[in-house]
Each structure stands twice: as C-alpha cells, then as structure tokens.
C-alpha cells in the first residue's frame, strides 16, 4: 500500500518522539530530525509504503542517538500493566462457551492498548469498552471457522502490551494447531522482538515456535524476508496479522490472511471506508486492494 504525502510529517514526528525518549537536548533533537529529512529528500522511490518510510527515518534516529532500543522502558511498563490484568482476562476466556471466540475478542481489544494508556485501570477500561463494540469490518466468524480446521497457523505480532492479549489467543489456537509466531528482527518503536517474546512466555507454550523475518523492518516485506519465513507462510493454513504496519506491507493477493487492527491511519481508513479508530478484522482477498473484504481460500503462493 503506497504511502501518501501525509506519511512524511508523521514519520518525522515519530523521529522526534523517539529522540525525546532518549534525551532532553533540543540540539540533538534538531540534529536527528535534519538527518532524517536529508534522507527523505534523497529518496525518490514513490512506491514505498508508509511503514518503509517510517522505518528508514527511525533507523537513522536510532543510529544517530546510539541507542539500541529507545522504547525498552516503555515496553516494560506497558507489559507490566497489562500483565496485572491477565488473570481477569484468562478468567473471561475460561467462562466462555467458545474460548477461541472470547480470546479473539481480547486480542482485538488489545489493539487499543497504546503507550498513552499508561496504567492498569485505563487499560482495563479501554479493553472492556472495545469488547462491547462490533468491528467496522467483521470477518471474525470466517476466521474462527478456518481456525477449527487449520493444522498450521502463523500469527504476526505487533506491539508490546497488546502481545499479552495475543498470547491468550495463541494459547487457545495452539491447543489443536501448530502456531508460528513472527516478531520483529530488531527493536523498532514498541513492537515485539524475540527478547520480548521470551519475556512474556511465548517460548513456553507447547506447539508454538517463534521466528524473526530475517530482515530489520517495520511490517513484513516478503521480498526481503528469509526463506524460512516464506516457507512458513506458504505452508500455513491461516495467517493472522496484527497492526497497521503489517497490513500496509502485506496488502497483496494470494495470501490467506486475516488483518486485525485498529484503523488509525487516514489513508487506511479511506481505503477501507471506515472511521478513524474503527476495529477491523479483514480477510485478505483478490479484491482487497479496492477495500473489498470478501474472502478467498487456498494455500499461499510465494516467489522465492
């Protein structure tokens, strides 16, 4: 999904926010911003996704600031806050007649957990509010049907905090299916890395494997990903993808994939004809590039 001009100021705002996490020195803030601007000015590729542009700017920021993971403390804080609520979330699933359905709803509600939701009470209120709202695009029944007969499932994670809600859904799926969880190759924003996955116990779940895409990126660019990831995608019966960045970069035909995210980007909202902040459970299809949510089945075909 090609980026619009609105992506440029957004990317620079992300750079500034990252710099401010590391230092209060405004001279450094300006220096990092100017380096990102210079890189943007030299890039003539107008076909890039928003995720690619944002990643390129943040990569410059990380290197300029000399910090591997500026969001490490933020991720730890939000993970701790959500972790305190897990027993209650787990109880909701246990009491449900359809545990996969309940876990899916919690995974979707987790999409609303952002860095600005900064304590357990706000998180609990946010999750409960989302549980009462139907998604603007709602292919959950189709997803649940496919999960019942799926042997191999791929689950692409998005943010820390949110990933604890995803863990509950992954646990339910893994009771009958093999699940490959995909995380980021290296720290970027508050997205989940291999270390984050270990910290929340994903490696301890039976029938679950955690892998990286083989290339540092925001989202998943299959042409740059490892042969391992491509094979995992090709073998999958169902792919579940969390977050807008993964939607932007995996927005392609011939993927039996479900996108679960909160639509915040104006471009995505326009493309899908939904309001900003709307919840989306979208089945990928041959017609999805026009915003159509109709479904298509079958194995994934990927060129190596």
Written overview of the protein:
With 304 residues, the chain is of the alpha/beta class. It has two domains: 7-65, Helicase, Ruva Protein, domain 3 (Orthogonal Bundle); 75-290, Rossmann fold (3-Layer(aba) Sandwich), CATH 3.40.50.10880. The protein is 48% helix and 11% strand. The protein is built from 13 helices and seven strands. The longest helix has 17 residues, at 26-42. It is globular, with a radius of gyration of 19 Å.
Please give the domain count. Answer: 2
Flag low-confidence runs. Answer: 286-301
Average residue pLDDT:
89
CATH superfamily of the largest domain: Uncharacterised protein PF01937, DUF89, domain 3
- Kindly name the structural category: alpha/beta
Placed side by side, the strands forming the largest sheet appear as 1-7-6-5-2-3-4
Output the CATH class name of the largest domain. Answer: Alpha Beta
Please describe the topology of this protein.
Elements: H1 7-22, H2 26-42, H3 50-65, H4 72-83, H5 86-95, H6 99-110, H7 120-131, E1 137-138, H8 140-149, E2 152-156, H9 162-173, E3 178-182, H10 194-199, E4 208-211, H11 227-235, E5 238-242, H12 244-249, E6 257-263, H13 266-272, E7 278-283
Parallel strand pairs: 1-7, 2-3, 2-5, 3-4, 5-6
Antiparallel strand pairs: 6-7
Helix pairs in contact: 1-2, 1-3, 2-3, 5-6, 6-7, 6-9
What keywords describe this structure?
alpha/beta; Helicase, Ruva Protein, domain 3; 2 domains
Quick summary:
The protein contains 13 helices and seven strands. With 304 residues, it is of the alpha/beta class. Strands 1-7-6-5-2-3-4 form a seven-stranded mixed sheet, with helices on both faces.
């Amino acid at each position: 999904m090609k980026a619009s001009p609105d992506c440029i100021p957004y990317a620079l705002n992300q750079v500034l926010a990252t710099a401010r996490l590391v230092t209060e020195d405004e001279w450094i803030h300006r220096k990092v911003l100017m380096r990102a601007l210079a890189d943007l000015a030299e890039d003539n590729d107008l076909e890039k996704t928003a995720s690619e542009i944002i990643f390129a700017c943040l990569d410059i920021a990380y290197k300029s600031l000399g910090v591997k993971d500026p969001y490490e403390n933020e991720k730890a804080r939000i993970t701790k806050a959500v972790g305190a609520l897990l027993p209650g979330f787990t109880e909701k699933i246990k009491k449900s007649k359809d545990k996969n359905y309940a876990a899916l709803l919690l995974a979707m509600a987790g999409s609303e957990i952002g860095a600005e939701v900064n304590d357990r009470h706000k998180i609990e209120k946010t999750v409960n509010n989302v549980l009462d709202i139907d998604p603007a695009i709602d292919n959950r029944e189709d997803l649940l049907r496919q999960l019942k007969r799926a042997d191999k499932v791929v689950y692409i994670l998005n943010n820390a905090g949110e990933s604890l809600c995803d863990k509950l859904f992954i646990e339910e799926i893994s009771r009958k299916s093999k699940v490959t969880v995909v995380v980021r190759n290296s720290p970027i924003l508050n997205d989940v890395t291999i270390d984050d996955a270990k910290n929340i116990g994903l490696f301890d779940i039976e029938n679950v494997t955690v892998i990286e895409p083989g290339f540092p990126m925001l989202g998943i660019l299959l042409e740059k990903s490892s042969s391992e990831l491509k094979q995992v995608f090709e073998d999958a019966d169902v792919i579940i993808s969390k977050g807008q960045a993964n939607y932007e970069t995996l927005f392609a035909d011939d993927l039996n994939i479900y996108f679960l995210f909160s639509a915040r980007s104006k471009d995505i909202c326009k493309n899908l004809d939904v309001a900003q902040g709307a919840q989306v459970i979208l089945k990928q299809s041959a017609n999805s590039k026009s915003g159509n949510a109709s479904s298509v089945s079958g194995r994934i075909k990927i060129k190596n």
